[in-house]
Amino acid sequence: MITYQNKSQLPIKERSFKFAVEIVKFCNHLKELKQYEISNQLIRSGTSIGANLREASNGYTKKDFIYKVSIAQKEADETIYWLEILNEILNENEIDSLLKEAIQLLKIIKTIKLNAINGKEK
Question: What pTM does this model have?
Answer without folding.
Answer: 0.88
